[in-house]
Design goal:
OB fold (Dihydrolipoamide Acetyltransferase, E2P)
Length: about 160
């Protein structure tokens, strides 16, 4: 029984670590984007709106929850048949709970920035909240690297 609770704790810890690995912060640059040339465009902020980026559902939470639930349910059953039924029901419940935990814990608070380029063209960009604060009228740079774009304040 101690082995099952240890496995359950390890599976839950693994799920927590994997869910915490993803980030959409503009202050974090992926290794693949380092040492790449980026396109930079000047723009002015027209509006800023706080938004929430939906959480991930990679399946890791559901899989981990299913394993944890199955182990816990199987260990709670009496005879072998009851243990099997309890394990299946607990695995299904654990998968649903694990999926919900992954989705909730991986959502990000973000900003939707509406900007206007020097030529008059307008763009809307959603990026995670970083260390910079933006306000209408701010001069900014649109930095595009490998198809991904981020907004940074322009140097004065």
């Amino acid at each position: 029984m101690k082995t099952k609770s240890t496995l359950s704790a390890l599976a839950l810890a693994l799920c927590t670590v994997l869910v915490g690995c993803a980030t959409s912060s503009p202050d974090v640059i992926s290794r693949e984007d380092a040492q790449r040339m980026s396109k930079v465009e000047d723009a002015v902020v027209l509006s800023v709106r706080a938004v929430t980026v939906q959480g991930n559902q990679s399946g890791v939470g559901a899989a981990t929850g299913g394993v944890v639930g199955g182990l816990a349910g199987y260990g709670a059953g009496g005879n072998q048949r009851e243990a099997q039924v309890a394990g299946i029901l607990a695995a299904a419940a654990g998968a649903a709970v694990g999926n919900a935990i992954e989705k909730f814990s991986s959502k990000d608070e973000a900003l939707e920035l509406l900007v206007q380029l020097k030529g008059g063209e307008r763009r809307a960009i959603v990026q995670g909240k970083g260390s910079e604060n933006f306000a209408p009228g701010d001069a900014v740079l649109l930095i595009t690297t490998a198809g991904k774009i981020r907004v940074a304040k322009a140097p004065k």
